[in-house]
Automatic annotation (TrEMBL):
Pfam families noted in UniProt: Pectinesterase
Protein name stated in the entry: Pectinesterase
GO MF, any single term: pectinesterase activity
Listed EC numbers: 3.1.1.11
Pathway: Glycan metabolism; pectin degradation; 2-dehydro-3-deoxy-D-gluconate from pectin: step 1/5
Enzyme class: hydrolase
Catalyzed reaction equations: [(1->4)-alpha-D-galacturonosyl methyl ester](n) + n H2O = [(1->4)-alpha-D-galacturonosyl](n) + n methanol + n H(+)
Limits of the Pectinesterase catalytic domain: 22-307
Organism field: Chenopodium quinoa
Gene3D superfamilies: Single-stranded right-handed beta-helix, Pectin lyase-like
Localization (cell): Secreted, Cell wall
Catalytic residues, chain numbering: 174
Matching InterPro entries: Pectin_lyas_fold (IPR012334), Pectin_lyase_fold/virulence (IPR011050), Pectinesterase_Asp_AS (IPR033131), Pectinesterase_cat (IPR000070)
Length: 318
């Protein structure tokens, strides 16, 4: 039985038994597509539904609607994870709706899933080339051992509280963006080379009273080329914190960008704590980047940053 510190609705969902829906390309599951499995979940769902997904490439655009809470996507074989892929672009769908996987419901969990946007790499010559792999807009979502691939705008970490653990995210420009309050733990952030400049984070907190902010803890920052920054100003109070991360020399010495908005330097919160590696040197950091004390860092390196005690559970054991 799940204990009493959790949100009551989550406790009820986890304690009423699990519905398992199998998706398999070989016809052995109940459905052959993930979209059909999601359609099967009832609007107003109140119990945990695990959609077990067999290996293979699923070429589909998948949306988990607002009122389909407590859904888990579970790749059955960790050594051969299923890939959900689609080539939606901002020109065709608008940026946030270009995502291959859109989750708008609460208490979503994913384990052993690869999500990719297969649209071509933007060359900056025409508008609307951004192409999102994942958009997570529901509250209290967790991703374990997942991989997200794309170029510009790979992960739209939109709103709500989220947890990413042991994941891999790659991209070029703003490849994690949005206004959510999220904790990324042991998740590799891989900057693809080949562009003149790259930015990992574009955070969308509009003012310092909003709770949004991305905290990266023990996250390797990988890549080569010395052309990237950890984050840039998107909205005036953008917030991103890197702690205990190993940072390669893909990151430029200044580390951060105010995106030619010097007025935002007063309201942004770009911070670092106890990082290591050639890209972690604070010697030439932008003057607006904060070097946190142990006390200041405490908030951001704890699971309580995302109120985990009320909702965060390990992935189901099937």
């Amino acid at each position: 039985q799940i204990n009493g510190t959790l949100d009551p609705s989550l406790m009820e969902a986890e304690n009423t038994g699990v519905e398992i829906i199998e998706v398999s390309q070989d016809g052995k599951g109940k459905f052959k597509t993930i979209s059909d499995a999601v359609k099967h979940v009832k609007i107003g769902n109140t119990k945990r539904v695990v959609i077990k997904i067999g290996p293979g490439e699923y070429r589909e655009k998948v949306k988990v609607e607002r009122f389909k809470s407590f859904v888990t996507f579970y790749g059955t074989d960790p050594k051969n994870r299923p890939t959900i892929t689609f080539a939606g672009t901002a020109a065709e769908y608008g940026t946030v709706d270009s995502a291959t996987l859109i989750v708008e419901s609460d208490y979503f969990v994913a384990k052993n899933i690869i999500v990719s946007n297969s649209a071509p790499r933007p060359n900056g010559k025409k508008k609307g080339e951004q192409a999102v792999a994942l958009r997570i807009s529901g509250d209290k979502a967790a991703f374990y051992d997942c991989k997200f691939t794309g170029f510009q705008d790979t992960v739209c970490d939109d709103k709500g509280k989220h947890f990413f653990k042991d994941c891999y995210i790659e991209g070029t420009v703003d490849f994690i963006f949005g206004a959510a309050r999220s904790l990324y733990l042991n998740t590799e952030l891989h900057v693809l080379s080949g562009d003149n400049e790259a930015m990992i984070v574009a955070h969308a907190r509009k003012n310092p009273s909003e709770e949004g902010g991305y905290s990266f803890v023990h996250c390797p920052v990988t890549g080569t080329g010395g052309h990237a920054v950890l984050g840039r100003v998107w909205f005036e109070a953008a917030r991103a914190i890197y702690s205990y991360c190993t940072i390669s020399d893909v990151i430029k010495p200044e580390g951060w960008s105010d995106n030619n908005k010097p007025q935002a330097q007063k309201t942004i919160y770009f911070a670092e704590y106890m990082n290591t590696g050639p890209g972690a040197s604070l010697a030439k950091r932008a003057p607006f980047a904060k070097k946190l004390t142990a006390v200041e860092a405490t908030t951001f390196i704890s699971l309580e940053y995302i109120d985990a005690g009320k909702w965060l559970l390990p992935p189901p054991k099937l």
